[in-house]
Amino acid sequence: MEQDQTMKDWLENLMTCQACHLRQEGNRGPTRYTGNITSPLMFVGEGPGGVEDEYGVPLVGPSGQLLDKALWSVGLTRDRVYVTNIVKCRPKNNRTPTLDEGRHCADIHLVKEIDLVQPKVIVCLGKVAFQYFYGKAASIMRNRGKWFTWRGYPVMPTYHPAFLLRQTGHDLVESKWQVYYDFKAAVEKAKAENPDYTYQSPEKTNLLEQYTALKESRSF
Ligand code: URA
């Protein structure tokens, strides 16, 4: 109840945010989170693309569809994990947010979000998320699957689903397996901390259906 109330305040603050130029870059406004606010597992992506801007939530476009499949393969559903982004407003022309834009947005919103959710494990999807938590530029290729600690939270970087979507042949097979093992390690760690939580619903979550009303309420 307490967490719900504070989450409501956090959301209100997010939805009225004008703290940087990204809000002016021709998008429909900030995107929120998907999933369960009591989840031990948090996944942090980069920033919204076109579909996410339309629906108002993270990772529901092509990358999100792949993420959902990968989650299912390790016994997770989207309604049972918490998914969010470093940057909440879609940068113009889908460009990758800069490290400074990521820092500015995440220092205001994501840090508070993490304190509210208090996940047992944070998984960074891709370079933008990894570099925010890691505090400096570092190779995701060399660091994926490794644990480090951010403000007491165990954090693991892995590839962004968009990276997998760009791979073909042997590279694709290899990187899919790497993500699978990274996700598996993250679930194991979360389960060791919180074995009683339900990590998977019987059915996959249909986020596009779930957020149709939110989509209809969003406009330029
Ligand atoms: N990529 C991300 O990292 N987040 C989204 O919400 C969409 C694409």
TrEMBL record:
Presence of keyword Magnesium: no
SUPFAM superfamilies xrefs: Uracil-DNA glycosylase-like
Q: Which reaction does it catalyse?
A: Hydrolyzes single-stranded DNA or mismatched double-stranded DNA and polynucleotides, releasing free uracil
Could you tell me which residue ranges the Uracil-DNA glycosylase-like domain spans? 32-178
Pfam families, per the entry: UDG (PF03167)
Q: Looking at its record, which EC class is this enzyme?
A: hydrolase
EC number from the UniProt entry = 3.2.2.27
Top-level division of the source organism's lineage: Bacteria
- Which InterPro entries does the record cross-reference, listed alphabetically? UDG_Type-4/5, Ura-DNA_glyco_family4, Uracil-DNA_glycosylase-like, Uracil-DNA_glycosylase-like_sf
What are the record keywords, sorted?
4Fe-4S, DNA damage, DNA repair, Hydrolase, Iron, Iron-sulfur, Metal-binding
* CDD domains according to UniProt: UDG-F4_TTUDGA_SPO1dp_like (cd10030)
What family does the entry list?
Belongs to the uracil-DNA glycosylase (UDG) superfamily. Type 4 (UDGa) family.
Its name, as the record gives it, is Type-4 uracil-DNA glycosylase
